[in-house]
Amino acid sequence: MNNVLSYISWGEKDLEADSNYINKIQDDFKSTALIRLEYWNWINSLPGHSSISFWSRSVDHRIICMLAINSSLRQLPNEFRHDSEINSKVSYENIRRLCRCTDKTMRSIIKEGADRGDIIKMKEGRETFITGTPQLIKVFEEFDKNWIVAIKNIT
Q1: Confidence band (pLDDT; 50, 70, 90) for 145?
Q2: N or C: which terminal CB in the chain sees fewer CB atoms within 10 Å?
Q3: In Å, what is the CA distance from 2 to each residue of 10, 72, 89, 93, 98?
Q4: Mean pLDDT throughout 142-149?
Q5: pTM (predicted TM-score)
Q6: Backbone phi, psi, residue 26, to 5°
Q7: Pairing label, strands 90-91, 127-132
Q8: Considering the domain boundaries, does residue 37 fall inside one?
Q9: Does 6 reside within a domain?
Q10: Residue 75 contacts residue 69 (beta carbons within 8 Å)
Q11: Residue 15: what pLDDT?
């Protein structure tokens, strides 16, 4: 019983400290939290077949998408390249290193992206590479445009 009472009194002090902390948070931060809530709610409301919805499913989806986009724009950073001279494709090996999902899940994401027409897979010898398509860049442009609209609507 004493443990319950000490937990309740500790909890009240903790809540009071949390309340003081929350009251001091800047309005800019609060509006950013609202923007993100509205934006991710918009993405969640998209139909399941939407490319924006697909590429937003997980952090691994977003990493693969951004690697594909940047390789198709020929601006893949050196640390993500298989060869320091080639910035237009990314290897499965580098994707594997960056993703937290299993190899099977990574391959499944890439396969679905290729089936959608968002990604091109290339086999060169024993290595497999991907790059984004113009269709994927258009998806990203729409995604980015809606993010900017969300920010403007809140501020």
Answers
A1: confident
A2: N
A3: 12, 64, 63, 56, 49
A4: 79
A5: 0.78
A6: -65, 150
A7: antiparallel
A8: no
A9: no
A10: no
A11: 57
Alpha-carbon distances of 121 from 103, 113, 131, rounded to whole Å: 16, 10, 7
Alpha-carbon torsion (77, 67, 135, 118), positive or negative: positive
Percent of the chain having pLDDT more than 90? 53
Q: Domain of 113: which CATH number?
A: 1.10.10.10
Tally of structural domains, the chain: 1
Distances (CA, A) of 90 to 42, 67, 82, 115, 141: 30, 7, 7, 18, 21
Burial zone of 126 (CB within 10 Å; 0-12 exposed, 13-18 middle, 19+ buried):
exposed
Evaluate whether residue 11 is within a structural domain. Answer: no
Q: What is the mean pLDDT of residues 9-17?
A: 56
Residue 127: domain span? 47-150
Say whether pLDDT at 58 is over 80: yes
Percent of residues in the chain assigned helix, strand, coil, to nearest 5:
70, 10, 25
Asked if the structure places residue 60 within a domain, the reply is yes
